[in-house]
Write a structure and sequence with these properties.
With about 140 residues, the protein is mainly α. The chain is about 75% helix and about 5% strand.
């Protein structure tokens, strides 16, 4: 919850900074570095949801945290009940193995264990990101 709260504080700051920067006609600045800096400050990304609804931004950040947790704790177990986490085990198998069966086992196992757990959350996450994109213009 600390991470989510910190993210909400950061989003509020980013929105205020973007509003302040938008008061300037920065797109007409001759200095390319200043234009890039102002462009960076005014591009609030998914924080734009906070303009419309703090609750939606909280929902987005909570979904993000839940998906990170599922992803980081996901494991795939083989027939001998030996379990492999994504890092480093499955990453190494997927990066180095040339054995079709091993690659298919790792990929399907990961998809079945982590993908299914995240599917509904990811769908809602994308909807919220799309709302943020619309809010950004």
């Amino acid at each position: 919850m600390k991470k989510i709260n910190a993210s909400l504080v950061e989003a509020d700051f980013n929105l205020k900074a973007a509003a302040n920067a938008s008061k300037f006609a920065w797109k007409n600045f001759r200095n390319a570095t200043l234009r890039r800096l102002f462009n960076t400050v005014t591009d609030v990304g998914s924080d734009a949801l906070g303009r419309k609804s703090k609750d939606k931004l909280l929902q987005l950040r909570s979904l993000e945290a839940e998906m990170e947790k599922i992803y980081s704790k996901g494991k795939v177990c083989n027939n001998t009940n030996t379990c492999f986490p994504l890092n480093p085990d499955l990453t190494n198998i997927l990066a180095t193995s040339r054995n079709h069966d091993d690659l298919l086992w790792a990929w399907k196992g990961w998809r079945n264990n982590v993908g299914r757990a995240e599917k509904e959350k990811f769908t809602e996450f994308v909807k919220l990101l799309n709302e943020a994109s619309v809010e950004n213009g």
